[in-house]
Design goal:
This protein is an alpha+beta fold. The protein has 14 helices and 18 strands. Strands 11, 12, 13, 16, 17 and 18 form a six-stranded mixed beta sheet that branches. Strands 2-1-5-4-3 form a five-stranded antiparallel beta sheet, sandwiched between helices. This is Transcriptional regulator.
């Protein structure tokens, strides 16, 4: 392309067609293909790929496509990619395409007419654009070569794509160098411009810079969480994120990054640079104690606080101290269901509980994998459950209807209804007892006391403004789970003061 960039597009296309035809026929081409294109063509011929084949491929199912979108951090930088490419692509009658590391199209945006044309060559969401699926193309060849690539007209191996031009660049995770996917600009060959590749490469670098900045903020949050814990730890220790980057250290010189095994769990583990270490989970990372030989004590208590509609948290008390993490709505639903089922839930059961569809196990496993990153040592799997040695408490809102109010998960809907029925039944039983105004007064007094305590305070039973309990009938607490509701505390208070008893008036 460097030789032809100054030539007119029609002449360039003719030359490229001659090069393509001669190379595939085993003849000497008038101009040798560019090295990156020649290497790709040789790979295609070794694979036996038919240049006359269709570019159609089996699309991902919608749920699998959504799962891949949620699983990649590329979604976090789509704003940067759009801002840098969509307007330019639209003006030049091209489209922006973003794929995952396997070449599956996750997003495509741009000119509506070009989007329709792209559909005719199966350049659509969920399609496969790796080399072994579609031959030489900017997306697949950038994946294979690991660097930015522009492919124009007959440089494509498959004849169907000879009327197209495309430029693509890899996007890598700055935390570990892992390839995340490809950002690409594609369109009719008549829209070719030699500067397109430089633009795509620059926008890919901007996306990586944004990911790097996000990572630095995550490390800073981990440092804030770990600092009070490290102050209480005797000897050497350091806090690292899940990729091994050091957030803080005590008693030792910090290293920039600690090599971690791919599947790290709480307990004793041998690390190449530190030897035998004790590892404990932190939100967003790990507490590593070099030279520790004692076994890791399990977390003693987990508190799932659902008392506030917009801020759901999980707090974990461990041997080195405690920490609190804010939960996403989905993670709050999953942990709520597990707290309600101490015996555990399979992926299919959780899929029913949260989505009402037992087939959505892929999504459940992906979400549970994320949860276990910060609750390793607390959660077990096969089935998913809290550890037997862990005391689990759920802090409910004061009113059953306020339990995860934005959730439509079947398990949450059932728990709201069941808890509401239980409260109504208890209220009716009290009225029917004929206990009179003294009972009502005692209940009101207990409720007022709970109200005055405020959201952040705790009663003797551990309940604050909400109620600390299991999720109700059908989702009740099991062994090792504390269940104390506000209404139960009120009844107990009335009973202790004897206001509802005839003997009390004697």
């Amino acid at each position: 392309m460097s030789r032809l960039s100054g030539a007119d597009a029609a002449h360039a296309a003719r030359v490229l067609h001659q090069v393509h035809a001669a190379t595939l026929a085993g003849r000497r081409p008038p101009v040798p293909p560019r090295p990156v294109i020649g290497a790709s063509w040789r790979r295609m011929m070794r694979l036996g790929l038919d240049p006359d084949r269709s570019t159609s491929s089996v699309l991902l199912r919608r749920d699998e496509l959504e799962h891949r979108r949620r699983s990649t951090v590329l979604g976090e930088v789509m704003g940067t990619l759009r801002g840098g490419l969509t307007a330019v692509a639209d003006a030049s009658l091209q489209i922006m395409v973003v794929t995952d590391c396997q070449g599956r199209v996750l997003w495509r945006e741009g000119n509506a007419g070009v989007l329709r044309q792209a559909g005719a060559i199966c350049l659509e969401e969920g399609a496969a654009w790796s080399e072994d699926s579609t031959g030489t193309n900017a997306i697949g060849t950038a994946l294979a070569a690991g660097r930015p690539v522009q492919v124009h007209s007959a440089e494509h191996f498959v004849h169907t794509l000879h009327n197209w031009t495309c430029a693509a660049a890899p996007v890598r995770d700055p935390r570990d160098g892992r390839l995340l996917g490809i950002v690409d600009v594609s369109g009719p060959a008549s829209g070719f411009h030699p500067a397109t590749l430089a633009l795509v490469r620059s926008v890919a670098r901007l996306a990586e810079a944004e990911l790097r900045e996000r990572h630095l903020r995550q490390v800073e949050r981990l440092r804030s969480t770990a600092a009070p814990i490290l102050c209480r730890v005797g000897g050497r220790a350091l806090a690292v994120d899940v990729h091994g980057w050091t957030a803080a250290a005590t008693g030792m010189a910090p290293v920039d990054r600690l090599p971690l095994p791919k599947s790290l769990r709480a307990g004793r583990v041998w690390l190449p640079s530190l030897g035998m270490c004790t590892v404990e989970p932190l939100p967003g990372g790990w507490l590593v104690r070099p030279g520790e030989c004692r076994p890791v004590e399990p977390a003693s208590r987990v508190v799932l606080d659902l008392s506030r509609a917009r801020r759901r948290t999980v707090s974990v008390s461990g041997p080195a101290g405690g920490w609190t993490r804010e939960l996403s709505p989905r993670h709050a639903e999953l942990l709520y269901v597990l707290a309600a089922h101490p015996q555990g839930r399979t992926a299919a059961e959780l899929a029913c509980d949260v989505f009402g569809d037992p087939a959505r196990t892929v999504t459940v496993r992906a979400e549970m994998s994320r949860v276990r990153r910060y609750l390793s040592g607390v959660l077990a799997h096969r089935p998913y459950r809290f550890g037997d040695e862990v005391e689990v408490r759920v802090v409910h809102p004061a009113h059953p209807a306020d339990l995860l109010p934005l959730s439509s998960a079947p398990a949450v809907l059932e728990a709201r209804a069941a808890t509401g029925r239980e409260s109504g039944s208890a209220s009716g039983a009290t009225s029917a007892s004929g206990s009179g105004s003294a009972s009502a007064s005692a209940s009101a007094s207990a409720s007022a006391s709970a109200s005055e305590a405020g959201p952040g305070s705790a009663s003797a039973s551990g309940a604050g403004s909400g109620r600390e309990s299991g999720p109700g009938p059908g989702y009740g607490p099991g062994p090792g789970y504390t269940s104390t509701s506000t209404s139960e505390s009120a009844s107990a208070s009335a009973s202790r003061f004897g206001s509802a008893s005839p003997a009390a008036s004697d």
